[in-house]
Amino acid sequence: MNPSRFWQGRERYTVFDSAYGDGSRTAALIEAWRQDPDRPARLHIVALAEGLLPGFHRIPQQESCVTLDLLNAPLDAALVQLAARIDFARLHGLRGPNTGFARALARLAASDARLAFDWLEQEQVAALMAQGFVFEGGGARFASRKPRPVLPEVPARHAIVIGAGLAGCAAAERLCARGWDVTLVERHAAPASEASGNLAGIFMPLLSKDDNIPTRLTRAAYLYALRYWETLGGIGKRIEGAACGVMQLARDAQHAAASRAIAAGKRYPRAFAEWLEAEQASTALGLPAPDGAWLFRQGGWARPGSVCEAMLDACGARLTRRFGVGSVRIERVGEEWEVHGDAGMIARAATVVLAAGAASTRIAQAARLPLSALRGQVTHLDASTLPQLPYVLCREAYLTPAANGVACAGATYDLDADPRLRAASQQENLERLQALVSDPDAGLGAPLRGRVGFRCVAPDRLPLVGGLPDFDAAGSTERLRDVPRHPGVFSLLGYASRGLIWAPLCAELLAARLENEPLPLEAALVDALDPARFVLRARRSVRMPATFAPD
């Protein structure tokens, strides 16, 4: 049974394959799609694949209207965590007593979805029939009469994105790639004028022994960003920077012991993360690494502004830039939103994406989001006065290799709103730099040069991606899906210090959700990013009993 028999005339078509194998079936399917004049406008392929790091991996394709997701997870777990509507499923080699997949597959199956298989046990056939599959002609068809969840209507493909930093530029590019027209609104005269305007941002994964939610989310974002940047021309080519690797020094002996425990689990391939003992790390770095270090060979640095430029160039004619408009507000008029500035209305559309960092809370509908602006001062140093680094070096602070004669060191974490460079912050950066390179004279006497930016940070340090919650209308809501939202308003906020890697995946997630496409993350991770999580947390904190001491 071939999927191409059933996709004619469809707007989109999603195929699930329980075994990616060598990729030949996927390649053949994409080629069949290319050659079919009656093909669906968008083809989505989701396949289970071994040999990858755990989790979901969205792999950009030659055509923007073809999506490939590779999932490294057991079948049952993958189906439970998959957010998609499946039109065609292939099952391979399901020998044994497992029937748990049947209910999860039925939950995802579209009406009249087709099922192909090379072998099923009698118990598995019975389990699938109990869920509404009818076996016929060597395959099966999903014929359940139970009502299917109604997908939200895809809005008119015109969006206003507020903020032209990494978050907003990525949102514009991912929407334009899907055929949307985007009006990008920025209060400054140019993109990347605030936190995204630093000379260098570093990109690297996050590790933990228990592979917790922040680790899994960061890994997914990092791996997607590496692939995504290649579609824009690549780091060190179209994008200014270098995939030179990042060496993260252990803070102390205790941190080194914890790192060894992670390395002993053999979860990560060498190209992704390699633990180096002190002698190895010191030799590779050319500087002391007394407690050892992690080496992230695929990591590096990039100038965020050049990433923004590459994303905006990729938007083409579908992008309208409205820069230098100052502060804005949004107003609901009928079924659309109007964005107003000091000089009047700027744009109107049914969909608005807030991507202006902590400044987004100045918009009334987002005022109750618990976002903070953390000041970060970066110090710019004459690279000739510092050791020549083969990698980005980091611990509590970071130091980049030289670019155009300048190395970047930083950055501070301050709670004030002072936008000016100050000597005290530079001294803090220099002290951390000196500890990092084991040289008490590094940077001494350097002139006060650098840049101040403000990171947008949520209490749990995770981004806010999804429909903007209406705190005032939440009432007694207990579940994320029941939290009321401001219709047509979405957020891409809270990227903290990882905007480079968060921006592509978060924009892809939001664009996929708007288009009712398969989502590029496990359902649990999607929920962890939902801005409505703070509505539920606020309610729980109110219900907690107060503690008191007896008289």
Automatic annotation (TrEMBL):
Top-level taxon in the UniProt lineage: Bacteria
Alphabetized UniProt keyword annotations: Cytoplasm, FAD, Flavoprotein, Methyltransferase, Multifunctional enzyme, Oxidoreductase, S-adenosyl-L-methionine, Transferase, tRNA processing
Pfam families named among the record's database cross-references: DAO
Top enzyme class: transferase
S-adenosyl-L-methionine listed as a keyword: yes
One MF annotation (Gene Ontology) recorded for this entry: tRNA (5-methylaminomethyl-2-thiouridylate)(34)-methyltransferase activity
Domain named FAD dependent oxidoreductase: residues: 159-513
PANTHER family linked: SARCOSINE DEHYDROGENASE-RELATED, TRNA 5-METHYLAMINOMETHYL-2-THIOURIDINE BIOSYNTHESIS BIFUNCTIONAL PROTEIN MNMC
Name this polypeptide is given: FAD-dependent 5-carboxymethylaminomethyl-2-thiouridine(34) oxidoreductase MnmC
Organism: Massilia suwonensis
